[in-house]
Write a structure and sequence with these properties.
Elements: H1 3-14, E1 21-24, E2 33-38, E3 44-49, H2 59-70, E4 78-82, E5 87-91, H3 98-104, H4 109-125, H5 136-141, H6 144-155, H7 160-174, E6 183-185, E7 194-196, E8 206-208, E9 215-217, H8 221-227, H9 236-249, H10 254-281, H11 292-303, H12 309-318, H13 324-332
Antiparallel strand pairs: 1-2, 2-3, 3-5, 4-5, 6-9, 7-8
Helix pairs in contact: 4-9, 6-10, 7-12, 8-10, 10-11
Length: about 350
């Protein structure tokens, strides 16, 4: 047993769950680990192990969870926490992720997505807490992994000139968004992070996870995250319908909003393209390569917006499409650039 395992066991015992049976839960792309604890009497909780030595800080999660619960949304309650060691004991919201439900009951897609959007609208109407802002300069910089990892993995070199030129070009499209109202954005608001809680009422039926990296940003950002999902297909028809459903409750200039949606969609999916390549090349997580074609498809969808014609030209010149050969090359290089 490692020293950290001993610390974890002591934390669980202090919380009164020393007799609980512990089973691992599916992790994510982060350095956090999750376990389910089940007491002999049936009481359940989720243990988050977020080592500070690996760059984790549980305090933002705790803060945002309290904020979300305070406005009537379903974030996990906090049962116990150790900020110094990076342990959290959370309310167990169950296993009914939207993604898992829709694998078995695809006919429920419209209802689940409409409710998720209703929760977003409610969130956007609440005064946000003080948070860092996803401003244009930050958003532009976050596209760099598309060049530094994705293109590097395929071409074997980083074209710093292409990356710099793209950042400068894209910054001009992002800059107008800085003047628009900011809301809390959770950044990873999608079907793998949303839970269906049918025993609750209204918007509380949507269980929220993975919001610790929340920032202030444009109202379209989390909508893009939900409807241009890297892990499951959302049809163009459903995407269009859900954008309309959002705008019915959050009236604003349609042209300006859909332009912002395309700009942020391009930014988000270019970032994910690089992140997934990095997860393979640096950490050996080859299964993320399988998701890249869908992400590339989202990039292309957004680049077809007329306002992004110049961005589309640059991307088509500087980034290689994920052909079977390119993906095979990326997969063959997994875990070969740990220090890149």
């Amino acid at each position: 047993m490692t020293a950290r395992d001993q610390d974890l066991q002591a934390f669980v015992e202090r919380a009164g769950l020393g007799a609980a049976r512990i089973t691992p839960l599916a992790g994510d792309a982060s350095t956090r680990r999750y376990d389910r604890l089940v007491q002999p009497d049936g009481m359940r909780a989720v243990l988050m192990d977020a080592p500070p030595a690996k760059g984790n800080d549980i305090r933002p999660f705790v803060r945002i969870a309290a904020y979300l619960a305070g406005i009537g949304l379903s974030a996990p309650r906090i049962y116990a926490q150790d900020d110094k060691l990076g342990f959290l004991l959370l309310e167990d919201l169950g296993d009914d992720l939207f993604a898992r439900i829709l694998e078995q009951e695809p006919h429920r897609e419209e209802t689940l997505y409409e409710t998720a959007i209703d929760a977003l609208v409610h969130l956007h109407r609440a005064p946000p807490p003080a948070l860092a802002s996803y401003d244009a300069a930050t958003l532009a910089s976050l596209t760099a992994p598309a060049f530094d990892w994705y293109q590097f993995g395929i071409a074997g070199e980083i074209d710093k000139n292409a990356r710099a030129a793209f950042s400068e070009l894209f910054l001009r499209h992002l800059a107008p968004l800085d003047a628009q109202p900011k809301v809390l954005i959770q950044r990873d608001y999608h079907a793998e992070n949303l839970l269906w809680l049918p025993d609750r009422e209204g918007l509380a039926r949507v269980g929220l996870l993975d919001f610790q990296d929340a920032v202030l940003g444009h109202t379209a950002y989390d909508l893009v995250s939900l409807l241009q999902d890297a892990r499951r297909d959302v049809s163009p028809e459903l995407e269009e319908h859900m954008i309309a459903h959002f705008l019915e409750q959050s009236p604003q200039d349609h042209t300006a909003f859909t332009t912002a949606y395309a700009v942020l969609g391009a930014q988000r999916n270019l970032r994910i393209l690089g992140v997934f390549a990095r997860l393979c090349l640096r950490y050996g997580k080859a299964h993320y390569i399988d998701l890249i074609p869908r992400v590339w498809g989202h990039v292309q969808t957004n680049l077809r917006h007329p306002a992004l014609a110049d961005v589309a030209e640059h991307i088509h010149q500087s980034l290689s499409p994920p052909t079977p050969e390119a993906l095979s090359l990326l997969r063959s290089k997994c875990a070969t650039f740990p220090d890149q």
